[in-house]
């Protein structure tokens, strides 16, 4: 009797493994979803970027971007390039940085990311 139960469980486990192999997405699907969006190409407009920073960033990052609730952004360009900054501003972080994707246009975010990337 035990042999029948064990062989039945083994057969069920093999069948379940086969079903999972063909229904769960593979690595190629997961890596495609995790790739960040490309930053749109914009020409840096420093005055517009500074204005957006004053409107959107100073509450957490300070009047001179010296830090406050959020980290200092005065030398953020030495740590992150424009593409990474674009991703952070767009999507936010889990550590308290909100996503600005719905509040600013992609071009405004890209311009702000370019401006911040020059702060080294």
TrEMBL record:
The lineage of its organism: Bacteria, Bacillati, Bacillota, Bacilli, Bacillales. Signal peptide: none annotated. The keyword Amino-acid biosynthesis does not apply. Gene3D superfamilies: Cytochrome c-like domain. It comes from Paenibacillus provencensis. Pfam families: Cytochrome_CBB3 (PF13442). Residues 44-120 form the Cytochrome c domain. This is C-type cytochrome. InterPro entries: Cyt_c-like_dom (IPR009056), Cyt_c-like_dom_sf (IPR036909), Cyt_c_BACSU-c550-type (IPR012218), Cyt_C_IC (IPR008168), Cytochrome_c550/c551-like (IPR051811). Keywords: Electron transport, Heme, Iron, Metal-binding, Transport.
